[in-house]
């Protein structure tokens, strides 16, 4: 980790809902010196009664810390970032856990914080909310996106080391705008589809029978429609342009399926489902090849930046990051180049 | 059951894929005299090597049976029904497990088989296929739709008794066209959405990163896109008009969500997700009140028919059916009238 056993990591978590709370619990479990703060007084009381140290003031929580994790609702993050930056030293690493990255990344740059703020997004969660749902093992094996910047590469390396070691997550390096385009399709549009399916069922005159006959496809397809509505609304509005662009691709495919169905064209339906099934088979059979990749840290960061951002786009992730005074060495997992999955009958 | 212990039920299953195979295995497990047949020679051999009796000819499988379950691909069912009807006696109960009901019901009526053919649809399955995926407990607690007809009510009662006793399923009585409208929304449209989401991801230039960051919402929302394409194509084309009508309701809701997002209207997004979430909460918290309902069987069947078809539409199901020479008595589970679920924050 960043520090030796004689000097445990001093961390703070601001905003201790599901994600922030899980980060806090994990840091505590590995012996870090960690304290939390949440704007909600009941949450602070709940945490203390569970033996989790919580500060009464945000500034008390973050003062003198090595790293601060920023959680809480997406729209609150810019203001929280500024407040935490003002209450911490120039060496204090800052990161967030928001589900979109471009806006906050640009905001942090405008505030001159790029050298110590590393935008982050742990891809884990449940449809529950709040500290009561937090789990220290929530991030085990999960993807955790970090957005590196040339002027923040040292901070990125420190945080990548911490996240792989403490949380057992795979760090996916990715530019902020690419992250937002990817999660639009990998997370946000699925929330739109789930809402549309559950909402249409709710309005249907056959509603009660639909609930009774809800097949696995309906249950799976509506699950995230049960997410707290405010969280979903924040997530979608925080990534509006990318979500609408990704939705256009999905409705185009849906229109093709509907047109084939309307025409009674079973051959085209079959072909479209064979194509779609490739993604499912790829999800089920993901294999990785492990490599090590090193860079000198006393030269211009262009090669390292290019390699990192390319790695995330090709589906790879980091499982370790070790630094010496003049080098950084990443342990990398790259998707195994497999044969195209054979179409099913 | 239909017969006493001295005369075990004589059953046959024609078409021993996932559903038919699971029916066969369960009947065997409860001690019925059951034999299967499948048009695929390899399937017959596979079944025999697992100790499951299989006939070499369809007519040998069904001759002298009390009940025959018809499985296999949807488009094959009309021809199979005619062939099985010709090879069985007038007292032999016939039922199918196809995922749409109106077409086959009308076909059976035109063939003069309504008095002994009871259209059926067990609402269970996995995204796997074939006898190798069959499980004797597949229907435990599942909904199993049966379509009663005035001139086939005696057959309906016999089959309802058998299915509740042997398979521990809840029998949902429903008119064939209502069934098709309900499953269009409860099963078929979710397959369209899953196909569109997985297909759009497959075509995206960000495909590899989308796979790597696939959140639970994406995994759940695409699961049934991995169903064998031919099965999905048959299911959709077999219920074309109802699927397109249900899809129109879902795309209308999706358009409302997209319009609110485009306008940056977080309040409307919140309201639409609060509405959609009601269906999720209702799925999670289903409770039933048990009742018994009896009818005389020596009078016109209008009351019993009306009650049965209404029961399915209101989300109820049968867990037992007992007959005497002059009465039929159903054990009924009706959805508990709950307060409207409180909206979440």
UniProtKB/TrEMBL annotation, chains A, B:
Domain Prephenate/arogenate dehydrogenase: 9-291
Membrane spanning stretches: none
GO annotation terms (biological process): tyrosine biosynthetic process
Oxidoreductase in keyword set: yes
Gene3D superfamilies, A to Z: 6-phosphogluconate dehydrogenase C-terminal like domain, NAD(P)-binding Rossmann-like Domain
InterPro entries referenced in this protein's UniProt entry, alphabetically: 6-PGluconate_DH-like_C_sf, NAD(P)-bd_dom_sf, PDH_C, PDH_N, Preph/Arog_dehydrog, Prephen_DH
Superkingdom assignment: Bacteria
Molecular function per GO: NAD+ binding; prephenate dehydrogenase (NAD+) activity; prephenate dehydrogenase (NADP+) activity
Keywords: Oxidoreductase
Homology family: Belongs to the prephenate/arogenate dehydrogenase family.
The protein's name in its UniProt record: Prephenate dehydrogenase
Organism: Micromonospora sonchi
């Amino acid at each position: 980790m960043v520090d030796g056993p004689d000097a445990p990591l001093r961390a703070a978590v601001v905003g201790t809902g599901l994600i922030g709370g899980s980060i806090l619990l994990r840091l505590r479990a590995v012996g870090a010196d960690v304290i939390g703060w949440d704007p909600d007084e009941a949450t602070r009381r709940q945490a203390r009664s569970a033996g989790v140290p919580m500060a009464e003031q945000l500034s008390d929580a973050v003062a003198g810390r090595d790293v601060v994790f920023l959680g809480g609702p997406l729209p609150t993050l810019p203001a929280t970032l500024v407040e935490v930056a003002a209450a911490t030293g120039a060496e204090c690493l800052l990161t967030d856990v928001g589900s979109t990255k471009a806006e906050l990344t640009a905001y942090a740059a405008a505030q001159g914080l790029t050298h110590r703020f590393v935008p982050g997004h742990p891809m884990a969660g449940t449809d529950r909310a709040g500290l009561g749902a937090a789990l220290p093992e929530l991030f085990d094996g999960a993807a955790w996106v970090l957005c590196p910047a040339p002027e923040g590469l040292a901070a990125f390396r420190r945080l990548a080391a911490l996240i792989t070691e403490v949380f057992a997550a795979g760090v996916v390096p990715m530019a902020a705008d690419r992250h937002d385009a990817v999660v639009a399709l990998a997370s946000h549009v699925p929330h739109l589809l789930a809402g549309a399916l559950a909402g249409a069922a709710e309005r249907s005159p056959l509603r009660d029978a639909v609930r009774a006959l809800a097949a696995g496809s309906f249950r799976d397809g509506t699950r995230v429609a049960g997410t707290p509505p405010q969280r979903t609304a924040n997530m979608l509005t925080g990534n509006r342009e990318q979500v609408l662009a990704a939705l256009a691709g999905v409705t185009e495919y849906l229109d093709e399926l509907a047109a084939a169905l309307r025409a009674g064209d079973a051959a085209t339906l079959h072909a479209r489902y064979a194509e779609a099934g490739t993604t499912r088979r790829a999800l089920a059979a993901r294999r990785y090849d492990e490599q090590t990749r090193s860079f000198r840290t006393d030269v211009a960061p262009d090669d390292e930046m290019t390699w990192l951002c390319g790695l995330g786009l090709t589906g790879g992730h980091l499982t370790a990051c070790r630094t010496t005074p003049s080098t950084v060495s990443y342990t990398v997992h790259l998707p195994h180049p497999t044969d195209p999955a054979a179409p099913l009958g």
